[in-house]
Amino acid sequence: xxxxxxxxxxxxxxxxxxxxxxxxxxxxxxxxxxxxxxxxxxxxxxxxxxxxxxxxxxxxxxxxxxxxxxxxxxxxxxxxxxxxxxxxxxxxxxxxxxxxxxxxxxxxxxxxxxxxxxxxxxxxxxxxxxxxxxxxxxxxxxxxxxxxxxxxxxxxxxxxxxxxxxxxxxxxxxxxxxxxxxxxxxxxxxxxxxxxxxxxxxxxxxxxxxxxxxxxxxxxxxxxxxxxxxxxxxxxxxxxxxxxxxxxxx
Length: 250
Hints:
mainly beta, 3 helices, 29% strand, elongated
């Protein structure tokens, strides 16, 4: 019995040593390219698993990985995620770069003023001229459908007919809910002037509204201004929002 106990203990110790041999500890420091200082709170994980840790206040980390681990993934808010393949070294230091995509995006706001999008206190959405030219239409406004959040475009059903553009829903029961169009700083009313007989198909023809005269090939960008703060500089005419159009220059 004593010999059996000794043999069992030896096998147990051997198993523990083999298990430890299959594990290794990876350590390192995560710094930023901005100031070369350690980044606290960086997520460090083994790719494809839930095994991970975060860096301490000095940007240092320590992570035990298995023998089958292939790479480590380093992620942090505002930084570009990095993936490092595990080699033979147990010390991996990483320098992370700021993720500047879209952070310094410049948009054209009211009265043609260019502002950084991150500095605005109201909702502004911009689409390029190419996006409204992907599918040709007799009225370029139809191309805005589904491309801008909060903008409802009711397409016309006849060639050259009127197109309704309502931003963030209707605000009036008796007055026009059409958005104001501004082309290179010039306000253009997009109100529908059809008579009741034309609207209900009784007689006459829908000759369209002013926005249908805009050539989509001349558009460089379209900016949608939403809410009172964004449209205040255009006065009461912009109470329903503004579709700001910037045309191409020679």
